[in-house]
Design a protein that fits this description.
flat, 277 residues, 12 helices, Receptor-associated Protein, 3 strands, mainly alpha
């Protein structure tokens, strides 16, 4: 287990400090002396510095951001290119080298470069891609493995490209189908907010001026206006936290994911009523 030590030393007549990570004090002192930074004065063990914790947090954050699925379009194009070249009898290393030259997506190029290095060192294709399963998807690894075991790697990669193309096309269709409802809902929210904050209070003043009893719909709207005005920020924070919680459960719990999808299919926009009106 690594520990952290603060070393006090003198250099050019001035006292300085440096933090050294080491399993024990003796190795920490030897490590300091090997640096030839100055005259050793004192050493004390400290807790893990905030700067090191922050650097570790940044590294984890970068890793999580980088672990997002790569875009399908350039990936599908690369798969079709590999499949065509394999079908022509070219070795997999030549195929990967050619893909490196043609693909423009930065992360995809980096993945293929590492995979090429691993394949050249003797690793098979599916094992090389296994390192990037979170980005490439489990189905990619399964199809690579199937192709290698059956001796039909070119056909498996072509089939994988067809599957991913269908997934991509369905995503585009869904986005296109939900674009108009999304715009309508957004406009409705803006209009409702305008009515609640500007129009309804005017009705309240008018009814109060004539000592008239407010109708229930107006009372309800006034209550909503009061709630938004007084507690709007808490409602917004609550909605964001709820959205984040649902998103986390959807990614981590297969049972919740199945339950959520089951009820989503009953929603008019994406369910049976929309597909078959």
């Amino acid at each position: 287990m690594m520990k952290y030590f603060e070393v006090l030393y003198i250099s050019k007549g001035k006292k300085n400090k440096i933090i050294i990570s080491s399993p024990n004090k003796i190795e920490a002192i030897n490590s300091f002396k090997s640096k030839n930074m100055g005259v050793f004065v004192d050493l004390k063990e400290i807790s893990e510095p905030f700067s090191i914790k922050f650097d570790a947090f940044k590294s984890k954050l970068k890793e999580k951001l980088r672990a997002k699925n790569i875009p399908l379009e350039p990936y599908i194009a690369s798969l079709r290119q590999i499949s065509t070249m394999l079908n022509a009898g070219l070795p997999i290393t030549t195929c990967l080298e050619d893909v490196l030259k043609t693909t423009e997506h930065k992360r995809l190029k980096e993945i293929f470069r590492i995979v090429l290095e691993e394949v050249e060192s003797g690793l098979n294709l599916s094992s090389a891609f296994k390192m990037f399963e979170k980005e490439m998807g489990a189905i990619s690894i399964a199809m690579f493995d199937l192709g290698e075991k059956t001796g039909t790697l070119d056909e498996s990669i072509e089939k994988l490209a067809d599957i991913l193309q269908e997934v991509y096309d369905n995503r585009m269709k869904l986005k296109k189908a939900t674009r108009y409802p999304t715009i309508v809902i957004f406009v409705m929210i803006v209009a409702f907010s305008f009515v609640i904050t500007l129009v309804v209070p005017q009705f309240q003043s008018m009814f109060e001026e004539y000592n008239a009893t407010l109708p229930f719909p107006t009372i309800l709207l006034l209550w909503i206006e009061h709630a938004i005005t007084q507690y709007g920020i808490y409602v917004l924070i609550g909605a964001i936290l709820l959205s984040m919680g649902l998103s986390y459960l959807y990614k981590k719990s297969m049972k919740f994911k199945l339950l959520f999808d089951k009820y989503m299919l009953k929603v008019y926009i994406v369910g049976k009523s929309y597909i078959c009106p």
